[in-house]
From TrEMBL:
Any one of the GO CC terms: cytoplasm
Catalysed reaction equations from the record: L-lysyl-[protein] + 3 S-adenosyl-L-methionine = N(6),N(6),N(6)-trimethyl-L-lysyl-[protein] + 3 S-adenosyl-L-homocysteine + 3 H(+)
Organism for this UniProt entry: Nothoprocta pentlandii
Domain Methyltransferase: 47-176
Stated name of the protein: EFMT2 methyltransferase
Gene3D superfamilies: Vaccinia Virus protein VP39
Taxonomy of the source species: Eukaryota, Metazoa, Chordata, Craniata, Vertebrata
GO biological process, alphabetically ordered: methylation
Amino acid sequence: FSRSWEAAYERELRSFRGGGGAGEVWFGKESVVRLIRWMEKHRIPRDSPVLDIGSGNGVLLVELAKSGYTNLTGIDYSPSAIQLSEQVKEKEGMSNIKFQVEDFLAPSAGLSGFDICIDKGTFDAVSLNPEDAVGKRKQYVRSLCSVLKPGGFFLITSCNWTKEELLSEFGEGFEILEELPTPKFCFGGRIGNTVTALVFQRK
């Protein structure tokens, strides 16, 4: 399962080195804009420690750095993803982002004290793992509680889970603050969302 992610990021890394772009932005550019707008609207201090869980190619943190945020950490369990994000960071000249290889389901002791944790698709990927998905989801919530300060904010974007399902997954230890607007689709006369974006606060 993790090997397929590693292969995907190796391809993106080769493409980037060959003069291509940084690769795909999960959930599109508007998902990045939506998160930054929320942080600006709620006047999150620019030096608040922010963790991007499953940072992939690092584009979200580069955009946060461009918006003036200065205390940014990205983790991914794919070494190729971290290599790619380091190169994207260098190309953009963003020195205030730290990237590290890290398995969020077994976080290192130093990974703690964050005011904001952001997840765009990582919880989805954990949930799709064919081996003990339920146990891994519970471990994800435990890890989140260990890295996020009490009172801190967790911004999650998901295409696998509805608002109600996420509320039950994160019900213990977190309360929902708001649902962020996401693009809607219409099918057979019914309107729905393909993507759910929620803001939780750690109790």
